[in-house]
Amino acid sequence: MLLVMSIFASCSTDNCYDTYIEYTPVFVSMEKVRQAPQMVAPQEMDISGKIYIYQPYLFINEPDKGVHIYDNTDPSSPINLGFLEIPGNVDIAVRGKYLYADNYIDLVVFDLSNPENPKFINRLENVFPIFYYEDPVQGLLVRYDEKEVTQKVSCDVIIERRRWQAEVDGNIGFGRPLMANASADASRAQATTGIGGSLARFTILDDHMFAVDEFSLKVFDLSIPDNPDFSNEVQLGWGIETIFPYGDKLFIGSNNAMFIYDASTPSNPQMLSTFWHANSCDPIYVDNNIAFITLRDGTTCRNGLNQLEVLDVSDLESPKLLEIYPMHHPIGLSVNNGNLFICEDDQGLKVFDTKDLLNIDKNLLSHNKGFTAHDIITYGNIGIVIGKDGLVQYDISDPKKLKVLSTIAVNQ
């Protein structure tokens, strides 16, 4: 069955036409969904997704396809080791020698002892069911292909602009949002855990991995790292987007709020407080008891605001708003040595001095243009930016004048 949205109707003296977008559901057989993922030869990147660092390796997600793995020992010359094919993949996390990734509705585990040839070792089935519908005959509904259609119609019929969402065998089918990954500072990562970020949906604290979907927080016990246990699920409400670890606390971003959870007992996280904000996409970065939240408008975020909010979270049960700054279209962010790095979409990357939290907008250190910036990881003197055009690595030792070290472009 098709999902159809009418765009417009046009009429001349004798003819009338209706133009609409036709959405055709695409199914993947469960046999194919559960084929063992494998490493193949290096490939060019067609679409950029999330980024993740596990020194000295750089992982670049290609949404719904898998992960490009680079040896990033020398950030000025990353070496492409290969492509780990993981259909339906959006998020990853690494702890010790194990890589964890979503594979459509499943969690898959790889032995990363040899990053040039990761070995698939385990699968937890049906732990991420929210984004997909499974048809008993056709398999898993994974996406809708779009096509614009124009048809001649009777001019006697009044055509209204309309939006229809067809049911698929009695179930509503929703496409899964593709997330661009975010940033993180090396100081918050343990020695055996990689660096995820402010737009990530996976994060690891000690021997537990936490994953958020649209409405819940899922807890995985990694005590036996090659055989994780799906140990708990906490209901959060609708519109959950991101998760950010800070100490033994979890900062969870949603369409209209930031939730703070105590994960000191990781198997049973407890909510400490909620900070409500306007309906907008909501990545979070926390540094020295200050939370930086970027809000932006967009299709999946409804008609929100474009701004930076700065909060004092020293009292985790009562976050305090310090200041709001208008922005262009802020997405991922990171803090490094007191400097705030904000990805401003088609306006590139901005760097601010945060010493004066009430006047951040007056302390712009640099504005790096000419590319689209969706997210950034910072660690040491390195900044890694991802956007629709690809990836750029910077030397950020001088925040007033960032130096490009290397680029990895998407296939044009």
What is the element layout, followed by pairings?
Elements: E1 3-11, E2 16-28, H1 30-33, E3 38-40, E4 51-54, E5 57-62, E6 66-71, E7 79-85, E8 92-95, E9 98-103, E10 106-111, E11 119-124, E12 133-135, E13 139-153, E14 167-168, E15 171-172, E16 202-205, E17 208-212, E18 216-221, E19 229-235, E20 240-246, E21 249-254, E22 257-262, E23 270-276, E24 284-287, E25 290-295, E26 307-312, E27 320-326, E28 333-336, E29 339-343, E30 349-353, E31 364-368, E32 375-379, E33 382-387, E34 390-395, E35 403-409
Antiparallel strand pairs: 1-2, 2-13, 3-7, 4-5, 5-6, 6-7, 8-9, 9-10, 10-11, 12-13, 14-15, 16-17, 17-18, 18-19, 20-21, 21-22, 22-23, 24-25, 25-26, 26-27, 28-29, 29-30, 30-31, 32-33, 33-34, 34-35
Keywords:
412 residues, mainly beta, Methylamine Dehydrogenase, Chain H, 2 domains, 5-stranded antiparallel beta sheet, 4-stranded antiparallel beta sheet, 1 helix, 35 strands, disordered N terminus
How would you describe what is shown here?
- By secondary structure, the chain is mainly beta.
- It has 2 domains: 70 residues, no CATH class; 260 residues, Methylamine Dehydrogenase, Chain H (7 Propeller).
- The strands form 9 sheets. Strands 3-7-6-5-4 form a 5-stranded antiparallel β-sheet, with no helix packed on it. Strands 1-2-13-12 form a 4-stranded antiparallel β-sheet.
- Strand 9 and strand 10 form a beta hairpin.
- The longest helix has 4 residues.
- It is globular.
- The N terminus is likely disordered.
